Recover the amino acids of this structure.
């Protein structure tokens, strides 16, 4: 049964991260013109998010997923194939 | 494992050091009077022979080595190779230029081409690696069964990859024709030789190790000029961090320039020209015959007086070049009208997002931007040449890790591209605009010979206005060293980098096309009994044929690089993404559903691109096929409709057909590592 838990948890993790990704990519970007009213490191915020902020978030999402999956595989006793 | 890793890293460290020393040596030689053309040749010969050496060293006749590099590529190096595979001529040459021209609006490419890797990491890479065969059609065939789906997948893979590979070879042509003064068509075939030396000899194995080497060159080449520029403008050599300041300065200069009287006058003149064309189009066919008569009478006048022969010849040529018939006139004048109207439009600040006309609050721009981001992300997660790379790691875990490394290595370029655009805009606004046309720097003339830069003194004041200058997006990166007055060795370096980007992507794409043909079509469908040796011979000869075909198409100079590439993403996304994702995450997806979904998605995308672009294809009679875009979405984002239709079709058709059998159940349990759900056996 450990295997089932592995898949269910993988799926839950995937759904949560994809939701975050969708919000960051599409919802936030929709309001870029409004975000441009704020400023960060000298950039208008909307521009900054599309040019740097989002990209760093994407990398962090992948890093987080990889770490969680590694831990889960160790817990569920799934050897690295 | 560890020992081999450090050995590899040592090799590549040595190689990078060697490359830097080579660049340094050339810089010294240039100081001592080495002519630019020799520097161009040195870069061309040095880098291509490096790739050839790596290609020859990793030549192979083993099937697993040829298709998936023996699945021995460590995550770190696979990430690097993927980076080079991924960053094409479009990323290297076109992206910063597009950002220069469209400011915030161009960031859709940056977002799409990086965001897609999250989808690759979470939805595809681990499952593809756990499945562990050779190609993407293999995967679809194993999940859904049947040769039909394999053939559809092969067709889509070839279509997307071929469009893409033509764009790469075109990029090679642009670079070689400018930097070593080869004729464009010859440059294309030189590039072809560079591509073939490694993919032909060693398949995926050679391509992988060459791509790692190409990554090093392309990233050094991309960062060097903009770092120097950043240092000279701000005093800090980290362009990615400091360009916020420069952006503010650009903003101030834009404020000053946009509303200056000369700019306003130039824009008004372009508006008048656009109106003039509109009037002429409305009065077709009379306007055309009147124009011809006017020219004829002027020629006669000239002939009657004692005008110079030169002037008469010029007028006669003008008459000869008039459109042949009203249809052609309409096409040509509409193009001229929209070009003039574009330049007449009020300019937009670099950082301004979705500058709508106010009426709809930029709604159509927002939706177009997000649609393009969507297509590019989904296309990223569906392009076979990229997905194939995740078959080459030793394990599932390493496949996941290598997506991380891929994105990291890719971000080095994508975080820099917007900085590039801002710095170049700063240079252009500060040092090119408002100076007399007679004193324009030499690079303007050099690039206008290739048709990539043009200017027209429409208000005849002898001074260059921003409105009067047209830069092709492909020129911005390539000309930056000259724009900033750097020594020629930097230009040579940039050319070598662009070449590396184009060649590495072309390698991966050609390999995808040939493995689709030789492995999926020939071996799996027609001759399952054929020997491995024969399969490799077939593979290699197909490689040659496809490469020559792609070069022939590229020599016709079709479209600009970036929109051609965007079509490839829409095509791949709508054909593969729904079938792959539902195939992994939805048990109920059936063969009929997937087949229908792929065909519908692909057809809708292809139809949409064709109908929206019909008018701009220079093919008589096609103009009448032109249609108004749906929801104002441009052809580069055609995939939105295709992907949505693909998902919907798969779901609906699957629910109407019989649920998949035990075989599929077992397959899914294997790639998900889940225990059998209902089937206890």
């Amino acid at each position: 049964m450990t295997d089932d838990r592995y898949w269910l948890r993988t799926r839950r993790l995937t759904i949560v991260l994809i939701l975050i990704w969708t919000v960051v990519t599409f919802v936030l970007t929709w309001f870029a013109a409004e975000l441009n009213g704020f400023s960060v490191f000298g950039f208008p915020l909307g521009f900054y998010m599309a040019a740097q902020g989002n990209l760093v978030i994407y990398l962090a999402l992948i890093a987080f997923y990889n770490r969680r999956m590694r831990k889960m595989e160790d817990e569920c006793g799934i050897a690295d194939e | 494992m560890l020992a081999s890793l450090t050995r590899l890293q040592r090799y590549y460290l040595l190689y990078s050091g060697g490359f830097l020393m080579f660049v340094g040596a050339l810089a010294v030689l240039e100081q001592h009077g080495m002519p630019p053309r020799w520097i161009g040749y040195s870069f061309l010969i040095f880098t291509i022979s490096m790739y050839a050496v790596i290609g020859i060293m990793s030549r192979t006749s083993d099937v697993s080595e040829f298709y998936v590099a023996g699945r021995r590529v460590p995550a770190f190096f696979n990430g690097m190779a993927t980076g080079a595979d991924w960053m094409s001529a479009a990323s290297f040459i076109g992206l910063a230029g597009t950002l220069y021209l469209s400011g915030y609006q161009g960031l859709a490419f940056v977002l799409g081409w990086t965001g897609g890797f999250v989808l690759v990491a979470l939805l595809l890479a681990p499952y593809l690696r756990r499945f562990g065969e050779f190609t993407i059609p293999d995967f679809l065939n194993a999940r859904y069964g049947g040769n039909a789906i394999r053939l559809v997948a092969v067709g889509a893979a070839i279509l997307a990859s071929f469009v893409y590979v033509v764009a790469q070879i075109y990029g090679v042509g642009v670079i070689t024709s400018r930097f070593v003064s080869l004729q464009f068509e010859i440059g294309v075939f030189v590039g072809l030789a560079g591509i073939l030396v490694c993919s032909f000899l060693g398949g995926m194995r050679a391509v992988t190790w060459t791509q790692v080497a190409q990554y090093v060159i392309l990233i050094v080449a991309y960062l060097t000029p903009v770092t120097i520029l950043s240092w000279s403008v701000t005093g800090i050599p980290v362009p990615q961090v400091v360009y916020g300041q420069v952006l503010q300065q650009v903003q101030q200069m834009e404020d000053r320039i946009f509303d200056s009287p000369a700019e306003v006058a130039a824009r008004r003149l372009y508006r008048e020209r656009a109106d003039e064309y509109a009037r002429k189009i409305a009065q077709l066919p009379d306007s055309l015959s009147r124009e011809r008569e006017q020219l004829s009478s002027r020629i006669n006048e000239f002939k009657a007086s004692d005008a110079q022969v030169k002037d008469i010849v010029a007028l006669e040529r003008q008459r000869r070049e008039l459109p042949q018939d009203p249809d052609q006139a309409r096409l040509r004048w509409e193009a001229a009208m929209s070009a003039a109207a574009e330049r007449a439009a009020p300019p937009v600040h670099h950082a301004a997002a979705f500058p709508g006309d106010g009426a709809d609050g930029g709604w159509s721009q927002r939706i177009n931007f997000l649609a393009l981001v969507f297509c590019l992300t989904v296309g990223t997660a569906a392009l076979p040449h990229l997905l194939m790379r995740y078959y080459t790691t030793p394990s599932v875990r390493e496949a996941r890790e290598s997506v991380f490394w891929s994105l990291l290595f890719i971000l080095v370029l994508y975080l820099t591209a917007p900085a590039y655009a801002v710095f170049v805009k700063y240079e252009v606004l500060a040092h090119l605009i408002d100076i007399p046309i007679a004193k324009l720097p030499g690079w303007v003339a050099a690039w206008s010979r290739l048709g990539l830069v043009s200017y027209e003194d429409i208000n005849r004041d002898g001074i260059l206005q921003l409105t009067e200058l047209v830069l092709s997006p492909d020129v911005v990166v390539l000309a930056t060293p000259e724009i900033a007055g750097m020594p020629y060795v930097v230009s040579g370096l940039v050319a070598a980098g662009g070449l590396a980007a184009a060649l590495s992507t072309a390698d991966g794409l050609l390999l995808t096309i040939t493995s689709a043909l030789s492995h999926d079509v020939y071996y799996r469908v027609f001759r399952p009994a054929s020997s491995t040796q024969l399969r490799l011979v077939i593979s290699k000869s197909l490689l040659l044929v496809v490469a020559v075909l792609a070069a022939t198409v590229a020599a016709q100079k079709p479209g600009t690089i970036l929109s051609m590439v965007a079509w490839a993403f829409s095509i791949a996304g709508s054909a593969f993404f729904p079938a792959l994702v539902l195939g992994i995450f939805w048990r109920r997806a059936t063969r009929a559903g997937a087949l229908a979904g792929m065909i519908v998605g692909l057809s809708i995308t292809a139809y949409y691109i064709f109908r929206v672009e019909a008018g701009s294809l220079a093919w008589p009679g096609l103009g009448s096929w032109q249609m108004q875009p749906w929801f104002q979405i441009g052809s580069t984002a055609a995939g939105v409709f295709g992907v949505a239709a693909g998902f919907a079709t798969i779901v609906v058709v699957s629910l109407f057909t019989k649920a998949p059998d035990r075989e599929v159940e077992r397959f899914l349990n294997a790639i998900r590592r889940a225990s059998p759900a209902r089937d206890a056996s």
Remarks:
- The radius of gyration of chain A is 17 Å.
- Chain A has one domain: 2-75.
- Residues 29 and 50 of chain A are 7 Å apart (CA to CA).
- Chain A has a mean pLDDT of 88.
